[in-house]
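Run log // design_07
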């Protein structure tokens, strides 16, 4: 796909300085720009590159005034970074604007779908599935019985959506995601053998939820595992049965959340965090990477460590952790002096 500077300026409501008819067909970093590419300048650290870049078009802030000659055509906007992000979103929407039903694919007779959908080859759509408008389901996706998928949601290749799952509007489900697999529910019998507890609930994703590649979200034992509006989950995250994650919370890769834990709104949880089951995590909580959460957390706390504790206290304690050999040596010397004087 090719876009002219005039077209891009129209999308971004920007002003052109240079050739309005120059065309671009790819994106680049400003320091790696080549002819036919589009880039942007937002960080002042990269200003020197605008005088040497070979990119055909560069998006800049309106306040930018070149001090030397430049070859690239400028598009001036209020916020170059936001405008470039907006353009990326537009580019993706055009690039991924597939429609129609590819074959071979299977769609149960009782399944229903609305206009402008895309269903890729080798996809399976089970009984009583309801699919909204502008939904895109890429090849090799499995959709189990009684699943609901609302308008504008995208499910990328190879995802598995088990029966009774409910997916809201404008969600993004990346490749390898599994929604609604059985929770880890087993109970020992008199012989010490573990017997499976039936997992009869479902998974609910509210609107504008993003799920990263290879993340798994287990169905509830009873009721629902709920991922609320605006939640963003990174790749390779495990969410256990009956977990409830509050609005606009973000969780980084390789984090695991055990069963029946409630996480509040607007939390930020780093990578490789472990959260035990049946806990309540408050709103606005921040958890540093590789921390272990084993008890309830109040609103707006910042935690680090395993087991985790207050971030400020952790930093102070770390000064002593790394000096422990020296501290022990000093104590030993003091004890020897005391013993020598006794």
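design_07 sequence
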């Amino acid at each position: 796909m090719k876009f002219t500077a005039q077209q891009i300026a129209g999308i971004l409501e920007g002003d052109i300085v240079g050739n309005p008819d120059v065309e671009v067909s790819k994106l680049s970093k400003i320091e790696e720009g080549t002819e036919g590419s589009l880039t942007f300048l937002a960080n002042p650290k990269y200003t020197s590159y605008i005088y040497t870049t070979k990119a055909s078009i560069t998006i800049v802030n309106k306040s930018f005034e070149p001090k030397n000659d430049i070859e690239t055509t400028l598009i001036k906007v209020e916020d170059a970074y936001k405008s470039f992000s907006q353009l990326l979103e537009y580019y993706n929407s055009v690039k991924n604007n597939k429609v129609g039903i590819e074959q071979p694919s299977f769609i149960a007779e009782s399944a229903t779908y609305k206009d402008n959908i895309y269903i890729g080859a080798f996809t399976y759509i089970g009984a009583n599935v309801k699919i909204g408008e502008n939904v895109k389901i890429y090849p090799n996706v499995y959709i189990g019985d009684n699943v609901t998928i609302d308008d504008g949601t995208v499910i990328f290749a190879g995802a598995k959506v088990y029966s009774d799952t409910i997916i809201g509007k404008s969600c993004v489900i990346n490749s390898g995601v599994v929604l609604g697999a059985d929770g880890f529910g087993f109970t020992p019998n008199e012989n010490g053998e573990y017997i499976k507890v039936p997992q009869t609930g479902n998974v609910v994703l509210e609107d504008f939820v993003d799920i990263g590649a290879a993340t798994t979200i287990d169905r509830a034992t009873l009721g629902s595992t709920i991922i609320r509006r605006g939640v963003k989950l990174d790749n390779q995250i495990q969410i256990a049965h009956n977990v409830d994650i509050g609005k606009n919370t973000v969780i980084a890769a390789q984090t695991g959340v055990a069963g029946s834990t409630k996480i509040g709104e607007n939390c930020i949880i780093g990578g490789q965090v472990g959260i035990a089951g049946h806990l309540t995590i408050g709103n606005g909580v921040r958890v540093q990477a590789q921390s272990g959460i084993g008890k309830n957390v109040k609103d707006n706390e910042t935690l680090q460590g395993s087991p985790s504790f207050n971030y400020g206290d952790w930093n102070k304690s770390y000064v002593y952790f790394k000096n422990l050999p020296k501290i022990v040596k000093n104590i030993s010397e003091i004890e020897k002096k005391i013993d020598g004087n006794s």
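Residues 324-341 form the longest helix (18 residues).
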